[in-house]
Design brief:
It is a single chain. By secondary structure, this protein is mainly alpha-helical. The chain contains 13 helices and 4 strands. The strands form 2 sheets. A two-stranded antiparallel ribbon has the order 1-2. It has a two-stranded antiparallel sheet with strand order 3-4. Helix 2 packs across helix 5, helix 4 packs across helix 5 and helix 7 packs across helix 12. Bound molecules: protoporphyrin IX containing FE. Protoporphyrin IX containing FE binds next to helix 3, helix 7 and strand 3. Its EC number is 1.11.1.7. Keywords: Calcium, Disulfide bond, Heme, Hydrogen peroxide, Iron, Metal-binding, Oxidoreductase, Peroxidase, Pyrrolidone carboxylic acid, Secreted, Signal. Its cofactor is heme b; Ca(2+).
């Protein structure tokens, strides 16, 4: 990765220092309230900035939840997705449409005033994603374990390990299993698609060129396929379609009703009905209480993937560049 505005030798020495710290990790682990002593207002600072952002932009919850997922999956929840520069994860195709990063920057800037060099960018992402989703409920939906530290590098190639929206069920399941997540996590976390939109390029192959045979994916309800064709008129359409029609901004269970009715937008949503265990869980998740409890447990597991703790990595001053 090539941090902006720094020369090659200083980048190398920063990387060396950071790797040295990585080698001496104390692996203290994550805990709720990690900043209670070191920065008592950390969580309220992030919440205030995020809630102001969510009040101004109802799509923020979806944007930040996706940033969190895209941070955690490739090399762990270490803010590697936030680093600017050529060859970073951020430069990879799936990350070009990430949004809400200005809110992460604003929260981090406020934290640097209150408690310089204390709160990691990786924790800001974890907290801000929770806060943005919670905004519509007026209360915090889940506790966030904190204590993550930030990576010193980011590699565009790592982003290719994000699940592809055209994965069939066994491959999708395997992609989660590689991160220690099971089918229950896959089903609960897929519920994030109750928020936000997808670009037509991820839907059109199901409408016009399914499995290369020029037909429509037989898994999509035909009436819904026709609706989608009106929004995505060709494989080159750049339109964005709502993933959970009727409740794009609402963190609710209607995504699961849609999946069950063969109205999942992405193939990876639809294939949840291709596995007995996943299909049973899709049914169960239609209860809001069960969905929220399952989501909380699964996002906690997702938030622990490959974290740097103790003295590993660093606490970036600016989330876009290594120190
Ligand atoms: C199961 C594997 C998954 C696949 C294949 C997948 C794929 C996608 C794709 C292709 C998009 C549309 C991107 C665009 O056009 O800009 C999307 C959007 C989104 N994804 Fe996923 N995703 C998966 C899991 C997740 C998980 C685990 C989360 C969070 C916990 C998540 C949260 C979101 C959100 C909130 C959006 C909407 C973003 C917005 O409107 O700004 N996804 N996903």
């Amino acid at each position: 990765m090539a941090p902006q505005g720094s020369n090659v030798s200083s980048s190398r020495s920063k990387l060396f220092l950071c790797l040295l710290l990585l080698a001496c990790t104390g692996a203290a682990g994550l805990q709720v309230g990690f900043y209670q002593q070191s920065c008592p207002d950390a969580e309220s600072i992030v919440r205030n900035v995020t809630w102001a952002g969510a009040a101004a932009d109802p799509s923020l919850a979806g944007k930040l939840l996706r940033v969190y997922f895209h941070d955690c999956f490739p090399q762990g929840c270490d803010a590697s997705v936030l680093l600017d520069g050529r060859g970073t994860e951020k430069a990879a195709g799936p990350n070009l449409s990430l949004g809400g990063l200005d809110v992460v920057d604003a929260a981090k800037a406020a934290l640097e005033v209150a408690c310089p060099g204390t709160v990691s960018c990786a924790d800001v992402v974890a907290l801000a994603a929770r806060d943005a989703v919670s905004f519509q409920f007026g209360r915090l939906l889940w506790e966030v374990e904190t204590g993550r530290r930030d990576s010193c590098f980011s590699d565009e190639a790592d982003a290719t390990s994000l699940p592809n929206p055209e994965f069939v069920f066994p491959i999708l399941k395997d992609s989660f299993a590689k991160r220690g997540l099971g089918v229950a996590d896959l089903v609960a976390l897929s519920g994030a698609h109750t928020l936000g939109r997808t670009t037509c390029m991820f839907v059109s192959p199901r409408l016009y060129t399914f499995r290369g045979n020029g037909g429509v994916d037989p898994l999509i309800d035909p009436g819904y396929a026709r609706e989608l064709m009106q929004q995505c008129q060709s494989t080159s359409s750049t339109n964005r379609v709502v993933m959970d029609p009727g409740s794009e901004f609402s963190f609710d269970t209607s995504y699961y009703a849609a999946v069950k009715a063969n109205r999942g937008v992405l193939l990876t949503d639809s294939v949840l009905m291709h596995d007995d265990e996943a299909a049973r869980l899709v049914d169960e998740m239609q209860d809001q209480g069960k969905f929220l409890a399952a989501f909380e447990a699964s996002i906690r597991r997702m938030g622990a993937i490959g974290v740097l703790t103790g003295s590993a990595g660093e606490i970036r001053r600016n989330c876009r560049v290594v120190n």
